[in-house]
Amino acid sequence: MYKNFFKPMMDFFIALVAMPFLLLLCIPIAIAIKIEDGGPVFYCGKRIGKDGKPFKMVKFRSMKVNAPDIRLEDGSTYNAEDDPRVTKVGNFLRKTSLDELPQFFNIFVFQMSLIGPRPDPVDWLDKYSEEEKEFLKVRPGITGYNQAYYRNNADAKLKIENDIYYARNISFLTDVKIFFKTIQTVLKRENVYVDKSREESAVSDVAEQNKEGQTSEEEKNEGKE
Question: What residues contact 99, with CB distance under 8 A and at least 6 apart?
């Protein structure tokens, strides 16, 4: 009863009540993003939704325009403090998780939930086994078990195991625990970036991107002289 009725209804009413306050908070964030580099305010990426159906998840853009997609060996997203793809405003938004605020609009249209498994990119769907797809029976969340207790330090295998556990054990009490643990994790800025031991597979790619960026800057400067 909670999973299929009370949970989605609670999500809807929370999003509805929070909407005016979120709009007030979103305005200065949007202005800051626009002022920094003039690029789009939002990033809309295709993600895997409930029952494996794709949807567009909305976030505040935290990366430079046309930044390359860099993954770790397990296929998870590369995320580090010295990532040259991230803007100055984006770095702050990530540390505070404010980049996720626009996803309340996804909740409002029943694409997401406040608490649930974080949605993966659509290319992950073919990587799941039939047993692992069990967690797709619930709506993805703005935060979830992994984000509350691991944030960005759970590898792909552990993330899926935790998502399956959550899908099998959804309850109001579990959601309340995850909600308050998430607040604690964000305020303490715990596990904002991936564990150093998991970065090795992407370091060379990032270094190459950084080098290319420096080369382009040098070329521009040469052209001005």
Answer: 59, 60, 62, 90, 93
DSSP category for residue 1:
-
Directed axis angle between helix 7-37 and helix 88-96, to 10°? 160
Ramachandran area for residue 43 (φ above 0: left; ψ -120 to 50: alpha; else beta): beta
0.85 surpassed by pTM: no
The DSSP call for residue 225 is -
Q: Give per-residue pLDDT as tens, 172-197.
A: 999 999 999 999 988 877 655 555 55
Q: Which residues of 190-224 are buried (b: 16+ CB within 10 A; e: fewer)?
A: ebbbbeeebbeebeeebeebeeeeeeeeeeeeeee
C-alpha span between 63 and 86 (Å, rounded):
4
CB 76 within 8 A of CB 54: no
CA-to-CA distance for 173 and 180, rounded, in angstroms? 11
pLDDT surpasses 60 at 144: yes
Give me the phi and psi of 41, to 5 degrees please.
-75, -40
Both tokens of 120, joined, read 């993966």
Q: At residue 25, what are phi and psi to the nearest 5 degrees?
A: -75, -35
CA atoms within 13 A on the CB side of 36: 21
Phi, psi of 77 (to 5 degrees): -75, 135
CA distance 149 to 158: 12
Domain ranges of the chain: 2-194
